[in-house]
Design brief:
binds nicotinamide-adenine-dinucleotide; N-(1-d-carboxylethyl)-l-norvaline Dehydrogenase, domain 2; globular; eight-stranded mixed sheet; 13 helices; about 55% helix; 8 strands; Rossmann fold
Length: about 325
């Protein structure tokens, strides 16, 4: 039964937040998963976190796939040996720190150990695929899969091939992510920041300027997203929003293009997040969310994201 999914191995290199999340996602799809980390104690920590997460998901109706908690958990094992993690894997997901030299050195090791035909994916947030993979023997099998955090409740994954990536790698990777319940989108050519972060940074930049120019408080700027734009964006993007806000995009353009262009021209040049504005924004946030309560606030956030995911599952009958 060599073609059974549970006989096909995925290797996870780096067992931090993204590493253990990907391990759970691929196990939920039915694959055998081996997690490796340079620090053995972090593999044990990741396995304990996975236990907690699976139980939480099961209790709250959020478990992915068709397998039980126990079946998913049995598919995931840790190892302190990189070769054991990658040599039999058909898919390898690298999840080490965002550092070009570190990623290059880890990929050189994976490249020497993996089998021909394996797909080697990196979770890089902004390092473009050709920079990481240019010296690899298997560079035609390399791809970046940039997840969104937290991957279970924000399932988008940007898939970014290098110019030399085999087209089949893009197809298989996309299929695997869909099997795991993620939502892959293709970045068709390499670009600094990919797409998610380019849009995110455009938003942060404008929020920064509006605060600095005294237009709005930090709390109210955040409300513009959470109580306004973000309400729609949880279900549809800005392009469909525009399409629905008028009778199609041509009508939207006829009505609003001059205004949009005029406002866009006033955006000004990029600014660095530093200096007195940084201090003021931080202080306004800290007055509302004290620094010693960040973990509670993260739990508050994750509970809401999980509830939104459940609502979406129910609406889409998943
Ligand atoms: N956290 C996020 O929000 C997020 C979102 C999308 C993408 N990413 C990207 O995912 C990657 C991992 O991020 P993370 O948040 O999981 O980081 P993390 O700090 O939680 O985990 C990184 C792990 O890599 C391990 N590591 C370091 N060197 C290693 C080596 N040589 N071999 C094996 N393991 C090694 C560390 O011990 C650590 O466990 C980064 O490229 C990051 O940019 C992160």
């Amino acid at each position: 039964m060599a073609d059974r999914k549970s006989d096909q191995q995925v290797g996870i290199v780096g067992s931090g937040l993204i590493g253990h999340s990907f391990a759970m996602l691929y196990a939920a799809a039915g694959y055998k998963v081996r997690i490796y980390d340079i620090k053995p104690e972090l593999v044990d920590k990741a396995l304990a976190t996975i236990d907690d997460q699976l139980n939480y998901q099961s209790k709250n109706g959020l478990l992915r796939g068709k397998l039980s908690v126990q079946e998913q958990r049995t598919l995931i094992t840790g190892t302190n040996d990189l070769a054991e993690c990658v040599k039999d894997a058909f898919f390898i997901q690298e999840c080490v720190y965002e550092d070009l030299e570190l990623k290059r050195s880890v990929h050189a090791k994976i490249d020497a150990l993996c089998k021909d035909g394996a797909i080697i994916a990196s979770s890089a947030s902004a390092l473009i695929p050709s920079l990481i993979s240019q010296n690899l023997k298997h560079k035609n099998r390399f791809i970046v899969c940039h997840p969104t955090n937290p991957p279970f409740y924000a399932p988008l994954v940007e898939v970014i091939p290098a110019p030399w990536t085999d087209p089949e790698v893009v197809v298989t990777t996309t299929h695997l992510l869909e099997e795991a319940g993620q939502v892959p989108v293709l970045v068709k050519k390499e670009i600094d920041g990919f797409v998610l972060n380019r849009i995110q940074y455009a938003i942060i930049g404008e929020c920064w300027r509006l605060y600095e120019e005294g237009v709005m408080s930090v709390e109210d700027i955040d409300k513009v997203m959470s109580e306004g734009l973000g309400r729609r964006y949880a279900f549809m993007g800005p392009l469909e929003t525009a399409y629905l806000n008028a009778d199609g995009l041509h009508t939207y353009g006829d009505r609003y293009r001059e205004m949009i262009y005029r406002v866009q021209c006033s955006f000004g040049s990029p600014q660095k997040m530093e200096g007195p504005t940084l201090d003021k924004i931080h202080d306004e946030l800290a007055a509302r969310i004290p620094m010693d309560q960040l973990n509670e606030r993260r739990k508050w956030r994750d509970l809401r994201l999980a509830s939104l995911q459940k609502l979406k599952n129910d609406l889409d009958k998943k």
